[in-house]
Amino acid sequence: MKSETDSNIKKHFLYPSSIIVSAEPCEITTILGSCVAVCIFDPFLAIGGINHYMLPLWNGVGLESPKYGNIAIEKLIIKLVLNGSKRKNLRAKIFGGGELMRYLSYPIGTRNIEIAEKMLKGEGIPILASSVGGKLGRKIIFNTETGEVRLYFIQNNNDQTLS
Questions:
Q1: 4 phi, psi to nearest 5 deg
Q2: Are the C-beta atoms of residues 29 and 12 closer than 8 Å to each other?
Q3: What distance in Å separates the CA atoms of residue 140 and residue 98, rounded to the nearest whole number?
Q4: pLDDT tens digits for 68-101?
Q5: Is residue 5 part of a domain?
Q6: For residue 136, with 0-12 CB atoms within 10 Å meaning exposed, 13-18 middle and 19 or more buried, which class applies?
Q7: Which domain holds residue 120?
Q8: CA proximity to 101, closest of 130, 147, 135, 68
Q9: Averaged pLDDT, 10-36
Q10: Considering its fold, how many domains does the chain have in total?
């Protein structure tokens, strides 16, 4: 029996403002603070995809970019459909949206969470799980074949001394 560490599954790191959809089994890792990642999985085809966006809404000025939640979620769904998924079979999980910077009057994390929930509801895609908000960052690892997401909280160690 293979252990998790010697598995041949492909591994990718997802940077902010990016989207990955894979019909091949892979594990996609990303790190989140106020950013949000939406993982969408088709359990019938065993394919999935994930985005990582930084701001909730594109205002129509400049380039349309997955840096914005409304663009990133729409493009993720489109890529899954182009890979053979039916919208009615898609299932979602949402992560991130922490409020790590207390001095901001604009609650970026909260607004990022709200756009994900609103858009997925509008698309009729159920949210099976989420870990959002709070004061900690998150590291997630999304398995595109199973839809499983492993979650790790990242402690904020502001008082750390380096020598």
A1: -60, -30
A2: yes
A3: 14
A4: 999 999 999 999 999 999 999 999 999 999 987 7
A5: no
A6: middle
A7: 12-145
A8: 135
A9: 97
A10: 1
